[in-house]
């Protein structure tokens, strides 16, 4: 497999999942602005949408969209980071993956957009703070987001939460969330992925 990534972007979640499951994967770094790859190629030949991440599969073909890739990687490893298909526990993880993708991940794209107005950015920041407050409440009651077990949903939430400081969102008031983030950051697979991407 080959993971097309940019350091610290949402592709980091897939990178961490690969490390957690011990799967060997080649890495191809992509410039998020120019879409140029390290080998000089144009990333849009891999994913015409230009969005990261993308995963080139051993059997041929390419998969995209972080929530899909997280499920694929977890399933390929034998449900290590996700419950078996068809179970309620699986749907609880999918519930979180979809919430994170649509309500948090996409909201951050507004805050990174230079043409978005300050008023709109402030509105989005307040929305994100409410979502982080919900996560804080959940991980204050349970160690992890779903089913009491570490999963791809926790990895995705960790990566998204790392962007907060870049856009002026202070998470320090969320004590349980900060403890959750620290637990994940200390995991050997997470440390390894961060080091490879030059983030630790």
TrEMBL record:
The keyword Transferase applies. It comes from the Bacteria. One of its GO terms (molecular function) is transferase activity. Residues 1-81 form the GST N-terminal domain. Gene3D superfamilies: 1.20.1050.10, Glutaredoxin (3.40.30.10). This is Glutathione S-transferase. The keyword Transferase applies. Keywords: Transferase. The lineage of its organism: Bacteria, Pseudomonadati, Pseudomonadota, Alphaproteobacteria, Sphingomonadales. PROSITE patterns: GST_CTER, GST_NTER. Residues 86-200 form the GST C-terminal domain. SUPFAM superfamilies: GST C-terminal domain-like, Thioredoxin-like. InterPro entries: Glutathione-S-Trfase_C-like (IPR010987), Glutathione-S-Trfase_C_sf (IPR036282), Glutathione_S-Trfase (IPR040079), Glutathione_S-Trfase_N (IPR004045), GST_C (IPR004046), Thioredoxin-like_sf (IPR036249). CDD domains: GST_C_Beta, GST_N_Beta.
């Amino acid at each position: 497999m080959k993971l097309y990534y940019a350091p610290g972007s949402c592709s980091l979640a897939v990178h961490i999942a690969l490390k957690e499951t011990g799967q060997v994967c080649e890495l191809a770094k992509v410039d998020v602005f120019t879409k140029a790859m390290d080998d000089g190629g144009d990333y849009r030949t891999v994913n015409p949408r230009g969005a990261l991440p993308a995963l080139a599969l051993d059997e041929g073909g390419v998969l995209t969209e972080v929530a899909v890739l997280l499920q694929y990687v977890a399933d390929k490893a034998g449900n290590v980071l996700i419950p078996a298909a068809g179970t309620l526990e699986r749907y609880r993880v999918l519930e979180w993956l979809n919430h994170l993708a649509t309500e948090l991940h996409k909201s951050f794209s507004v805050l990174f957009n230079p043409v978005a107005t300050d008023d709109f950015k402030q509105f989005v920041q307040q929305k994100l703070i409410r979502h982080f407050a919900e996560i804080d409440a959940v991980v204050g009651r349970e160690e992890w987001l779903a089913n009491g077990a570490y999963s791809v949903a926790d990895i995705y939430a960790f990566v998204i939460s790392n962007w907060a400081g870049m856009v002026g969102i202070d998470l320090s008031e969320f004590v349980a969330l900060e403890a959750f983030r620290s637990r994940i950051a200390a995991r050997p697979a997470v440390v390894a992925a961060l080091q490879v991407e030059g983030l630790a």
